[in-house]
Specification:
253 residues; alpha/beta; 8-stranded mixed β-sheet; binds adenosine-5'-diphosphate; binds magnesium ion
């Protein structure tokens, strides 16, 4: 059965897109999985990081959400082997019209249905808020990967994330599970990183992924070379950490 995972945190800059696209590539590369990456963030970062010219899209995710074209026509196969349903900033302009559509919370879930049998994993890169797009991502997913960066404000955001998941479970009746909380942008030379990590571990216990993503220049540079970290810096700490995450996510049921 297809495993559907949203990469979600309302805070920006925590590594959602970095995690979504590297994980997608890793699942193809090391586990020979068939992976679809959905970019439901108007910033379009995960599609761009895989080399998609996001400014030249004739169709994109918003067209499938608005039922203008079947989603099968929006899928782009990238050289990494990951299939992507891309977006760009024009998705943001559709937020109000989409919010007025009947069944607005499940537009993505419904649009995705015809694609599911083609993929082992669907990963969804979320925007940094809890608007209609993030709700669509969560409603279309079985589990959520929550990257949290090692900053004080990262910790403060946890309560908001939990509220959002409660909304999905209790008000929208969708039993989404936490696949794992991922410590990101960890800097071992920095005491704050260690303190935030300890608090996070204390709060989430077994729900934490064992993998931890270090802050590295290579992870920051890789998208500008249209490549995942496994190609851009295969021997480095970022590739090692994301490789470990691939193993953990592959095991997730
Ligand atoms: N582990 C990391 N080390 C160094 N830079 C990172 C790391 N994770 C993310 N970044 C950089 O930080 C910025 C925000 O990351 P991004 O993945 O786009 O976050 P989000 O999608 O949560 O907004 C990007 O420039 C990205 O390259
Ligand atoms: Mg992002």
């Amino acid at each position: 059965m297809t495993r559907k995972l949203a990469v979600f945190n309302m805070k920006g800059g925590v590594g959602k897109s970095t995690t979504a696209y590297n994980l997608a590539v890793g699942l193809v590369r090391f586990k020979q999985q068939r992976v679809l990456l959905i970019d439901i963030d108007p910033q379009g970062n995960s599609g761009a990081a895989l080399g998609i010219p996001i400014w030249q899209l004739s169709v994109q995710l918003k067209d499938a959400l608005q039922r203008r074209v079947p989603i099968t026509e929006v899928v782009v196969t990238t050289s990494s082997g990951v299939d992507v349903v891309p977006s760009n900033i024009t998705l943001a302009e559709e937020e109000i019209p989409i919010s007025g559509m009947p069944g607005r919370e499940v537009l993505l879930k419904k649009a995705l249905a015809p694609l599911l049998e083609k993929y082992d994993f669907v990963l969804i890169d979320c925007p940094p808020n809890v608007g209609v797009f993030a709700v669509n991502a969560l409603m279309a997913s079985d589990g959520v990967i929550i990257p949290v960066d090692m900053a004080y404000l990262g910790l403060l955001g946890i309560r908001g994330i939990e509220r959002a998941l409660t909304l999905i479970r209790e008000h929208l009746d969708h039993p989404i599970r936490i696949a794992g909380v991922l410590a990101t942008r960890f800097d071992g030379r920095n005491n704050l990183s260690k303190e935030v990590f300890a608090s996070l571990k204390n709060h989430f216990g077994d729900q934490m992924f064992k993998s931890m993503i270090p802050e590295t220049v290579k992870l920051r540079e890789a998208p500008s070379h249209s490549s995942a970290i496994f190609e851009y810096d295969p021997g480095g700490a970022g590739a090692k950490a994301y490789r470990e995450l691939v193993e953990e996510v592959y095991q997730w049921q």
